Automatic annotation (TrEMBL):
<feature type="transmembrane region" description="Helical">
    <location>
        <begin position="21"/>
        <end position="42"/>
    </location>
</feature>
<protein>
    <recommendedName>
        <fullName>Guanylate cyclase domain-containing protein</fullName>
    </recommendedName>
</protein>
<keyword id="KW-1133">Transmembrane helix</keyword>
<feature type="transmembrane region" description="Helical">
    <location>
        <begin position="96"/>
        <end position="116"/>
    </location>
</feature>
<feature type="transmembrane region" description="Helical">
    <location>
        <begin position="145"/>
        <end position="164"/>
    </location>
</feature>
<feature type="transmembrane region" description="Helical">
    <location>
        <begin position="62"/>
        <end position="84"/>
    </location>
</feature>
<dbReference type="Pfam" id="PF00211">
    <property type="entry name" value="Guanylate_cyc"/>
</dbReference>
<dbReference type="InterPro" id="IPR001054">
    <property type="entry name" value="A/G_cyclase"/>
</dbReference>
<keyword id="KW-0812">Transmembrane</keyword>
<dbReference type="InterPro" id="IPR029787">
    <property type="entry name" value="Nucleotide_cyclase"/>
</dbReference>
<feature type="domain" description="Guanylate cyclase">
    <location>
        <begin position="192"/>
        <end position="321"/>
    </location>
</feature>
<keyword id="KW-0472">Membrane</keyword>
Length: 374
């Protein structure tokens, strides 16, 4: 059984955001400090040979210190990222966030060094490995190591922040395949796409004004994000008041979950009607078109990069969604998608026959989808 790494990573990141934030930071910093321990070890061996001095040959103590520093620093920054950035500083000035983070980083570095020096080294490593020997680390050496570590951490922070920003931009679970070159060249995939478009968007925009309308869209997309995780949908892109999501069929055990996702979104906004009316003055509802087919996925752009899907499947899905107003439908799917759905009694699918789609010569058979009433 093949595991969908991207979908599982997204699901875990949304279900356990605090653990995910700590895990990402800790993983990066443990690896970073481990590399620092190797650098220090080989540098010390080199100087020992040059100046003909005897130093401890075991790398184990310095690895223990480095891993401990990575864990302490990673956990601290993970908590900072979650509580300061995602909670307390959400929507606040980026400059203020940078200042607060910088102060926090410096204070954590001081506390971490004190802990490593007094506890890990003084009470554990020195008595275990060096008691009874002539080896010790004077205060001047600790001061120099502190300066070295600060320089190293400064540059590693830039690199790690870059990777975290890339992970944030493309979404959890995409960074690893991206680094492995999965999307460097066009890659064919079979996917189910859904185009969700806000109903009466022009009316809402005129009534609310562009600022309040943008807040409405922001809240709608945020809640669709949360729902998408439960149903394994991958968010492809946002286009104005429309959001495009997809499912790779290779990892989809039950295609019916794609219809379940739409009606979960539909029911969510109905359930939260009073909240949206109070906050925004309107009740958002989305119309949708769905289709299945082959697409190519490839990393595009230079100044601004992103992973893009190309193919007729996307065009057909967009044209199907555009038929919602004409047919007075909330959800329309293609016959290609209907044929792979298992037998069920939840949804009533009414054939609309072959219909012409704008810009396409070949007609497509489509179905209106409604929930069967008991």
């Amino acid at each position: 059984m093949k595991i969908n790494y991207t979908a599982n990573a997204r699901k875990y990141a949304f279900q356990y955001p605090l653990i995910s934030a700590i895990f990402i930071q800790t993983s990066f910093w443990v690896i970073s400090f481990f590399f620092l321990s190797l650098i220090l070890h080989f540098a010390a061996n080199g100087f020992a040979k040059i100046y003909h001095v005897v130093i401890p040959s075991s790398i184990k103590p310095i690895v223990i210190i480095s891993v401990a520093m990575g864990l302490l620093y990673g956990i601290s920054l993970g908590l900072l990222d979650f509580y300061f950035y995602r909670r307390l500083f959400k929507g606040k000035s980026t400059g203020l966030l940078i200042v607060v983070k910088s102060i926090f980083y410096f204070l954590m570095m001081i506390l971490m060094f004190y802990f490593v020096k007094e506890i890990i080294w003084g009470r554990f490593l020195y008595p275990t490995y060096f008691l009874g020997t002539k080896f010790n680390l004077p205060e001047q050496a600790w001061a120099d190591y502190f300066k070295l570590t600060m320089v190293y951490v400064f540059f590693m922070s830039i690199i790690i922040s870059f990777f975290i920003q890339v992970n944030t931009k493309f979404g959890p679970g995409v960074l690893v395949p991206l680094l492995m070159g999965r999307y460097a060249n066009p890659k064919e995939e079979e996917r189910i796409f859904i185009f969700l478009d806000l109903k009466s968007s022009t009316t809402h925009a005129e009534k609310l004004g562009h600022i309040k309308y943008s807040k409405l869209i922001r809240d709608c997309f945020l809640h669709i994000n949360y729902i998408s995780v439960k149903y394994g949908a991958e968010i492809y892109q946002y286009v104005g008041d429309e959001v495009v999501l997809s499912w790779p069929t290779k990892h989809l055990s039950n295609p019916l979950i794609t219809l379940d996702f739409y009606f979960a979104c539909y029911n969510y906004f109905i359930e939260k009607k009073s909240r949206y009316l109070k906050k925004h003055g309107v009740l958002p509802q989305f119309k949708a078109g769905m289709h299945i087919g082959k697409v190519t996925a490839v990393e595009v752009g230079d100044v601004k990069r992103e992973i893009a899907f190309h193919g007729d499947t996307l065009n057909v899905t967009a044209r199907i969604q555009a038929k919602c107003n004409e047919l007075d439908a909330d959800l329309i799917i293609s016959e290609d998608l209907k044929t792979i759905l298992p037998d069920q009694k939840t949804y009533n699918m009414v054939s609309q026959g072959l219909v012409p789609l704008k810009g396409r010569k070949q007609e497509v058979c489509i179905y209106k989808v409604m929930v069967d009433q008991p």
